[in-house]
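Hello,

Our lab assistant flagged a job as stuck in the queue for most of the afternoon. It eventually completed. Since we weren't sure the result was trustworthy after the delay, we are filing this so someone can double-check. Below is the sequence as submitted and the structure that was eventually returned. Let us know if re-running is recommended.
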Amino acid sequence: MPRFDYDLITIGAGSGGVRASRMAGKYGAKVAVIENSRYGGTCVMRGCVPKKLLVIGAHFGEYLEDARGFGWTIDAARHDWAALIAAKDKELGRLEGVYKNLLTGAGNTLIDGRGVLADAHTVEVNGKRITAERILIATGGWPVVPNVPGREHMITSNEALDLKQRPQRIVIWGGGYIAVEFAGIFRALGSQVDIVIRADKVLRGFDDDVRAHLQNELTKKGMTIHAGTSIAKVEKKGVGYTVTLASGAVLETDCVMCATGRSPNTANIGLVEAGVKLNETGAVAVDEWSRTSVENIFALGDVTDRINLTPVAINEGRMFAETQFNKTPMKMDYTNVASAVFSQPPVSVVGLSEEDARKHHDVTVFRTAFRPMIHTLSGRDQRTLMKLVVDKKTDKVLGCHMVGDDAPEIIQGLAVALKCGATKAQFDATIGIHPTAAEEFVTMRDPVAVPTPGGEKR
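-- returned structure --
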């Protein structure tokens, strides 16, 4: 008889867990996948996909406004929030069915319930115990709500995707990508939006020019940004809420959304009891092979808090399956991973920010800001930013940054160039496609003057 019930038990059916389980099954492994919510995980059910659908829906308001500059007359346009949410929900239902079919098609056994480690080879679910030679933790992350008075009145991104009505006024606490993305959605659909951030600018960790440019664009769209403060308390007031900031300012609103961060889903699933070590952030500590401190237990995706992006989790899942079940050892390469923020306008980057690059390189910076062609006739006051960070010694492009329409589509192509080690000379030798915004990345010739320690520019 087999020593274990399964070759692999995966706890969590998000992007990383699904990819690992599917591939392991196709390589002949007997796999059980345990999920206590919806198949597809954060990205498909509570993140990237539904949020992007709402972003697309929100954009149509500006498209209709911009059309007037091109001779279109569009009367009596109105938006139905409930219809958008219903359409989104229908698509998520379809996608969940696709994910289930992909797993069962690979021979995986699906178990609905909460999986808890009983020991290094045993998982308890629905009052039963099952065993496996290897166990994969892919439980993702979850929004964190700070412990302030009135925290029970706040929603997170999870609930924001399912609101029955769009709030006329909303306060969003946080300046990261989730915060600015939802701020753009609600503002574009007509809500009054206040953003509360501890820092001086949104998108902490991104290039400073990107942060400043996006913040300026958000302000131009009518959002109010309360910088250098935080929410001190939230009080229910009639059908709305009173939000008191640490600065003393008081905001009246219909909805308060907390988007101050996410934490790894590691609590109460038996990790510590099974000997799995967590790092200082509460994430599962893993090595370059996604192996935990317990030899046969692995972890990947947001629960490890490495690079919390869906495509990264998917690739970690692939590497795990290839290594453990196909005798093809593979390790994830975390350099030059492109990312996007679907704010309005969107942000996309690949490589190093200017600030990070200067820590280890002598750099030359190229930057341009311009009005996109569409807005020469639409009249909209919106500008695009593009930036290249280049190693002065080697001429290698270290970072590409963009704020503006189609930024994610453009940066995805440039990510290939950076992966290949492209130089600024090679960018310069590339003929642009005219007229496009993307051509600006291959036509920037004059470096930005930078201040010297004495204050003068060189």
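-- support follow-up --
The delay was a queue issue, not a problem with the job. The result is valid. Residues 151-260 form a domain with the FAD/NAD(P)-binding domain fold (CATH 3.50.50.60). The chain has three domains: 6-143+263-325, 151-260, 339-442.
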